[in-house]
Each structure stands twice: as C-alpha cells, then as structure tokens.
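Trying the structure run again after the queue cleared.
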Amino acid sequence: MIAIVSSSHYPDDERIFHKQIDSLIRAGFFVYYFTRSDKKLDLSSSFIKHKNFTKKIKIQDYIKKVFNIICGIKDLSHIQIHETELLPVFKLAKSLHNNPITIYDVHENMEAIYRTFSTRIKPIKEIAIKIRQFEERRFLKYVDKIILANPPISKNRYIKYRIQTTIIENFPEIKYLQNSVESNIKNNMIIYHGHLAQERGIDILVKSMVDVVNFSPDTILTLIGDFRTKIFEKQIYQLIQDLKLSKSIQILNQVPYVDIWSHLKQHNIGVIPFKNNHLTQENTPTKLFEMMAEGLKIVCSDVLPIRNFVENSVCWASPGNILSLSKAIINVINTSDSCFMVEQNKQLVKEKYNWEIKKPEYISLFKS
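Done. Tokens:
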C-alpha cells in the first residue's frame, strides 16, 4: 500500500491524480489518497481509497489525522507528500515498525514563489525564506527520496543532503498528442490557460491585443483560469473595457484538467506572456507542453525555463514588453513557417516531452 498525501491541491489534480496515482494503480499498486480540499470529490475505486478532509481543518490536525490512519495500514510501503508543510508526516512515519520509504515531491521552487508574491520589504522577505529553509532542513533527515517537477535553473539546493533526487517533469500523456497537421479553425483564436495574475503578464497580453486586433480584426483571445486577486480581476475587466476589446477577449473560469483539451482544440494559437520575475525564472509552465501536444502555434516570453525545452519552434517575445508581444503574435499569424513549427513541437512531445517517458522513472521509486 502506498499513501499519497496532499494538503493544498485539488483532489483531481492533473499531476497527482491523473498522472502519478493513475500510473501507480496501472502498475498494480494500491493507493490510500489523502486530500485537504473543499472540492467535494470521492475518487475511491477498487485500487484507490480516497479520504478527503475539509480545508477548514488546521494543518497540524490534518497531519495527526493522516498519521492516525496510516498507523493502521499494516502493508504500508511508501509515503509521498506534495507540500513542504507535510514534512512532519515523515518524522511520525519513521517511528512505525514497517519504516515506510518517504518521497518528497517538490512541485515548484517555493523560495521563488515567495520572492514573487510577498509584499514585505526585501530584508524581512529574505529572513522569512531563511526560516522556511531552516524548517525544511529539520525534516530532510526523514526524507528518503525527492522528486523535482522542474530541472533546477539556479542550483539544486538538495544536492548537499545526498538524498536521491529524480526530476519528473509534468509532461502531457501521449494520448493528447494531436495527429492532424492542419487546423480546421479559420479565424485566429488565441488562448492562455492558467493563473490569471499580474506576474503572468495577463495585463501585457490584454494590452498587446490592441495592435493584434487592428492587424486582424477577427482575432479572439480566450483567458481560462482563476484570478489570483479580486483587485487584479477588476483591473483586467476595466482594461478590456477601456481598450474597447470586449468583443475580442473572453474570460472563462478555471476548468478541470480533463476538459482543458477540448478548449485547446478550439484555438490555433497559444500564448505564454510571462513577465520576468523570480517565479517565471525558476518554474517551467506545464501549459507549454499542452499547447505543443495540441498542435497550437505558440508565442512565449523569452524566459530560461521555457527556452530549456524549445528554441526555434515558438515565436519569442521580450518579457513584459507590449510591443514585442503584439509583434510576436502578429508574426505567428502571418508566418508561412507555422506548420513546420507546429510539427516540430509535436515531434518533441512524441519523442521527449511526454508522461509515458517519465512514468517508468516515477514507478521505479516505489519498487525499492
């Protein structure tokens, strides 16, 4: 039996549930899945026992409840966690007689996230990061294996602890690879999906649409996702109104992972308009590979985590530059090389950037 524990992700998270847990049960493992979410889902099946707790429960109480349950699992062999705040689970688990193997799945560079989002002055911000790092270090001695979702851009801070570390990127499943070369979409339909926030360059993307629509009046931009703040949501709707783009931009709420593919199929251009900040300089956007698999023409901000995976098969824009982004979008609309770029991206997904290639590495972590 394998215990998978998350405290902040949706129960049907595409990485945790649709890829990792699905791969484990297909390999013949039984999974006890713990989540802490207000999304009411029961994902139990013949191979999965799913226990969800309300988000209202404090993290310390959640850890205790999870531990009380896993104490009764006699054949528990592995525990995988998905958040730093769950590391105390490992300390408790190592007191069990069966001494389960512990796996710490680090989804994102948390220091980069904190440096991007914290409004504290820099000295206070850095002190808070040092405290977090200290708290993490206290529990690393209880960690047997680490999973990184991104290749380290600056440095791998776990190397000095000599813990087995495996990079398991969040690549799409090969079943989503679009076979057709030519798109049946006649108009220019642009999509961005993911968090709608200032650091992601959503305001820059909206402003760039003025020149794009002037060049190609039938172009439509779809933004899919949840706004990070109500203030930014209000600013974006006001910006769309002020720029007279109400007929050219539509905004949809976040959709489940399994449904995003049907939305991608309705578009022929994908845009990742990130600004240059700590977050975008450290973490690779999963949406890049989803757009590649679906066969979209792609416009990207020129940030290192994206350039690590693609080079000549996307149109680059300078991060945070409205004119550069609008020119890149117009270029991808106009270019005769777009079919070649699309085909090159699909080939990269087929040969390198798919979950089926990473799955054996993930499964092997549970065979020892």
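DSSP finds 13 helices and 13 strands in the chain. Worth checking whether this holds up in the mutant runs.
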